[in-house]
Amino acid sequence: MPNPPRRSRRVRTLVLCAVPVLALLLTAAFAPLPFAIARPGTTVNVLADHERKPVISISGIGARRTSGQLRMVTIIATGPRVDVSLADVVDGWFRTDRAVMPREAVFPSGQTDQQIERHNVADMKKSQDSAVGAALGYLHRSPKDVKISLSLPDIGGPSAGLLFALGVVDKIDGDGRGGELTGGRTIAGTGTIDPDGSVGPVGGVALKTQAAKRDGATVFLVPKAECADAEAVRLKGLRLVPVTKLADAVASLRALTAGQPVPHC
Description:
By secondary structure, the chain is of the alpha/beta class. It has helices at 6-30, 86-93, 103-106, 113-139, 161-172, 205-214, 227-230, 246-257, and strands at residues 35-45, 49-50, 53-54, 56-59, 69-77, 99-102, 147-150, 186-189, 192-193, 199-200, 219-223, 239-243. It has two domains: 1-30; 41-77 and 111-257, Ribosomal Protein S5, domain 2, CATH 3.30.230.10. The strands form four sheets. It has a six-stranded mixed β-sheet with strand order 6-1-5-8-11-12. A hairpin with a 5-residue loop joins β9 (192-193) and β10. α4 (113-139) packs parallel to α5 (161-172). The protein is globular, with a radius of gyration of 25 Å.
């Protein structure tokens, strides 16, 4: 019996080799991967009420009313138990309103959902305490004379510290001349804060600028170290203002209201 033509043998060999490769590719396409997919989240005006309760409550001194907004911003990520496929990862890489992040960069490894929740709540509480300390330090006021409470349930993490501190400064002192820090604008921003007023990076800034623009902000306060990340998605009509200290942010907001130049990314 004659041997099959050489070309036919070659085609059959290629087909046989392609089958396991295709199987591996299909498995990879649908197998869960150690990534989280993040997207722009909610924003909250810290100068107003949230869920029928003031975000910032002040006693022991008169707190003034404000007409502008100071919006803290969030990102939303797929949960630690949610499977992310190769298709999800590829889709996230090609979208500006999504970010693919290592799961361990979003959620501490080896922890239960309850432990992660407690961790986020603890970070938020620490951020709030630091914000109050930084604001009162900037205003040269004693915590013995001014009582401040912050309430923002269902949102965790430390990234609202800067906006909390600015909200306290605005409600107590404004710009020192009776005017609002916001100048009636909608200001958004992000950044951790230390009791000495130092502002630190937070991550997810490109997504947060999109949330801010969506909700009407025209100015975004960004930790200076993350300017490049914030500029990754250029949003028309949203001014990026870098800050390294609480005093920087206050000075920039005062300059904006006075129509003076301000730093920019």
